[in-house]
Specification:
285 residues, alpha/beta, Rossmann fold, two-stranded parallel sheet, 9 strands, 14% strand
Length: 285
């Protein structure tokens, strides 16, 4: 997909952060939009921002963890726009909790949105993307789909799964000469509200502080803006890149994992303990 002009893009999680920024970048490129989010208030705010651009925008209240809701979203998108060329499966949530303490309810909640939401979005939109003759699927993984981090096992599991799912999907589409391709995106620290909206469960001796303290720490170390992320994603689509890394931190950690496939874990444990000392929390051996 070399140009977005007069194409149609669907974006999940468009009420804030990377989703909202990507919608705005696409509108600047004269791309029509079918935006969705589970928050009707935030979705309305994004739609208002898009009102200044000469493109058609439709809003859809969608819980991506429900297959029938995503199916309806895809149908509405095509019914209202006539086609769809791009789906960006961006909706996501966070969870901080140790494996031992984590409830199955929390794990299922996160996987329902971060993994199954990507699966539903890819599968339900794929037939329409093929019909367009010029389609693309963008699935948002994370740098945590490349490396694993203490207290992030659920998030790691979902983002690693998104990576594997998307890479296999791209290979299939290429072999089929389908006119559709797929890109997996791995953002590093991006200044969004995901940390503040995350669930914080029992982290026991691995805690780095209160929900507020952890959110503030994430915001301090996040280096990329949603706008920078949006531009990187769309450049990746234009170039049909299989993988997009967002931020110098994502690039560094990707290289570290390649050079030290298991050794990077020692570095992360050391960094984790140093952070615990800074917050005056006792460390575990």
């Amino acid at each position: 997909m070399k140009t977005f002009k007069e194409k149609v893009a669907a974006i999940t999680g468009a009420g804030s952060g990377i989703g909202r920024a990507t919608a705005i970048e696409l509108a600047k490129a004269r791309c029509n939009l079918a935006i969705s989010d589970v928050s009707e208030r935030e979705l309305a705010e994004t739609a208002k921002m898009l009102g200044r651009y000469p493109v058609k925008v439709t809003s859809h209240h969608v819980d991506v963890s429900r297959q029938e809701a995503v199916k309806r979203y895809a149908e509405e998108c095509v019914n209202e726009h006539g086609q769809v060329n791009l789906i960006i499966n961006n909706a996501g949530v966070g969870l901080g909790e140790t494996v031992e303490a984590m409830s199955y309810e929390n794990l299922e909640w996160l996987m329902g949105i971060n993994f199954w939401g990507v699966v539903y979005g890819s599968k339900e939109f794929l037939p329409y993307l093929k019909q367009s003759g010029d389609g693309h699927i963008v699935n948002i993984s994370s740098v945590f789909g490349i490396i694993s981090v203490p207290t992030q096992s659920a998030y790691n599991a979902a983002k690693f799964a998104v990576r594997g799912f998307t890479e296999a999907l791209r290979e299939e589409l290429d072999l089929e000469n389908s006119g559709v391709s797929a890109t997996c995106v791995h953002p590093g620290g991006v200044k969004t509200n995901i940390a503040r909206s995350s669930r914080m469960g029992d982290m026991g001796a691995l805690s780095l502080g209160s929900h507020e303290e952890i959110s503030s720490m994430f915001e301090r170390i996040a280096r990329s803006t949603p706008e920078e992320a949006a531009k990187a994603i769309l450049n990746g689509v234009r170039r049909n890149q299989p993988r997009v890394l967002i931020g110098a931190d994502a690039t560094f950690l990707d290289v570290a994992q390649r050079l030290m496939p298991t050794g990077y874990q020692r570095l992360l444990k050391t960094a984790f303990r140093l952070n615990q000392r800074r917050t005056h929390i006792p460390t575990t051996s």
